[in-house]
Amino acid sequence: MGKISLAAKVTHVPSMFLSELPGQHHGCRQSAIDGLIEIRRRCEATGVDTLVVFDTHWLVNSGFHINASARYQGIYTSNEFPQFIQNLAYDYEGAPALGDAVAQIARAKGVRIEAHHVDTLELEYGTLVPLKYINPDHRMKVLSIAAWCPWHELEDSRRIGEAVREAIEASGCNAAVLASGSLSHRIHDNNEAQAGIHTISNEFYRQVDQRVLDLWTQGRFGEFTAMLPEYARACHGEGLMHDTAMLMGLLGWDKYTGKAEILTDYFTSSGTGQVNAVFPLAA
Ligand SMILES: [Fe+2]
To answer: One Pfam family this chain carries (predicted)?
Structure first.
């Protein structure tokens, strides 16, 4: 019998890498890094052996997709932010059986989804950046699920989240599940970007993000799930917030009553709103 030991919404801002370099931005994202390191500590303390990541940088245009490779290995340079992420070497053991089980269960729920075993299907940085801090010794297996889903129904992502929970519980895995994406995600206009590395692109987005965090920390997920579709559109949710819909599906959607724990206080980065938050699970 498997179990989920940790569920979280996590940031993957590349400015964490800048934060580690000498220079103007040194230390600027230490709080974000510390939040991810705390998740690593909790994973180690609870014996987590598998990380499932909903990745809002893996764009899929038809169907839902799971990277169920037995091993992920490569050297990653971001084609969208090559100035920030270059030559990031990675080597993780995959979780192919779990990936197949998620796809099978989700298909039974009516979702059009496939699990792929293709060595050349690479990971994206929504998975790679958090794992650099959460899984630096490559101890934990990894399963990456696409969550940049521009033409997809949030209801399907909710079902995928349910399927992830059922597949983990039917497996022998001790898993942590990470929704890797921002809150609001309206990146600055190009000529504002360099000066705006630490700011939000519009005050409206900050105000809505902060209201959402109030709902999360107060355990008001009936209200949050009711506003999620409009929030995702109005605030340009990263990946249209399919990572969040998958996480909410896993947690129980509107029936979830846990109170989110904020590990990294809300911060703004390159126009977007970011947080690290853990969602307590019933014993
Ligand atoms: Fe992102």
So the answer is: LigB
Task: Say which CATH number the domain at 170 has.
Answer: 3.40.830.10
The answer as to whether 132 is a domain residue is yes
The answer to whether residue 168 is domain-embedded is yes
User: Would 283 be classed as within a structural domain?
Assistant: no
Amino acid at 76: Y
CA of 49 to the centre of ligand 1 (A): 25
Residue 171 Cα to ligand 1 middle (Å): 30
Residue 9 pLDDT exceeds 90: yes
The one-letter amino acid code at 220 reads R
Q: What is the pLDDT of residues 216-265, one digit of tens each?
A: 999 999 999 999 999 999 999 999 999 999 999 999 999 999 999 999 99
- Our count of domains for the chain comes to 1
Q: How far is the CA of 50 from the centre of ligand 1 (A)?
A: 22
Centre of ligand 1 from the C-alpha of residue 80, in Å: 10
Would 97 be classed as within a structural domain?
yes
Average pLDDT over residues 178-203: 96
The tokens of 84 are what?
């920030």
Q: What range defines the domain where residue 202 resides?
A: 3-278
